[in-house]
Design a protein that fits this description.
Radius of gyration: 16 Å
Order of helices and strands: HEHHEHEHEEHEH
Largest sheet: 6 strands, parallel
Keywords: Hydrolase
Structural class: alpha/beta
Number of helices: 7
Shape: globular
GO molecular function: hydrolase activity
Helix content: 40-55%
Protein name: Alpha/beta fold hydrolase
Pfam family, one: Abhydrolase_6
Number of strands: 6
Strand content: 15-25%
Distance between the termini: 23 Å
Family: Belongs to the AB hydrolase superfamily. FUS2 hydrolase family.
């Protein structure tokens, strides 16, 4: 079967961005579209779509991470699988905020994932970021964040760099956890990171054709 133009675009030069919202440390209450954790990511989704990027926002069944249950991981995995089921050649960039950054840390070893952008990720000590050596990571963290620890995310990036991974930590001076202060900077840096990762995928595909 010959892929149509949209499938070629999604799976070739323009990766699909899978948005992973934040949540709570512990909660089994149902997650709703109008919760702030979901609404907070809509401006990023809208901006990326305006630039021609295909975006899918994951919906979690419950609001919390919930310890060993890792509740949102299964839902995010289902969203990722749905993308690759639609197009087996799809390449995916994970964009996760807070708890969504922890979900991304779990999913980033998937072969379909070609990049990770983590916004103020919740990476407590002991969190494993299962990054493949060929998968770039960009972490954006407000230096005034009092909800998740910018020092912890920077330590994790340092560890990954020492292991030979392509990882970058960018501090946003004076910004807090919810990305309201210096919002334009958050959006510009997200767009730049995703554009760089997309160009990397396109260059790789071009090399494969030669």
């Amino acid at each position: 079967m010959t892929p149509n133009r949209r499938q070629q675009q999604d799976g070739d030069q323009h990766p699909v961005v899978l948005v992973l919202p934040g949540g709570k440390v512990s909660s089994h209450r149902p997650a709703r579209a109008w919760h702030l954790s979901n609404l907070r990511m809509r401006p990023f989704t809208a901006q990326l779509r305006r630039s021609g990027v295909r975006v899918v926002q994951a919906r979690y069944r419950v609001r919390g991470w919930n310890g060993a249950e890792r509740s949102p991981v299964a839902d995010a995995r289902a969203a990722l699988d749905a993308i690759t089921k639609r197009n087996a050649q799809a390449r995916v960039i994970l964009l996760g905020h807070s708890m969504g950054g922890r979900v991304a840390a779990d999913l980033c070893s998937d072969p379909a994932v070609v990049g990770v952008v983590a916004l103020a990720p919740w990476w407590p000590d002991g969190t494993s970021v299962n990054l493949r050596s060929d998968t770039p990571l960009v972490v954006l963290h407000g230096t005034a964040d009092s909800w998740t620890d910018p020092a912890a995310s920077r330590r994790k990036v340092d560890e990954l760099q020492k292991s030979g991974n392509s990882a970058e930590w960018i501090g946003i001076d004076g910004a807090g956890h919810f990305m309201l202060r210096r919002a334009a900077t958050w959006h510009r840096l997200v767009a730049d990171a995703i554009a760089r990762m997309s160009r990397g995928v396109a260059a790789t595909k071009m090399g494969e054709r030669r």
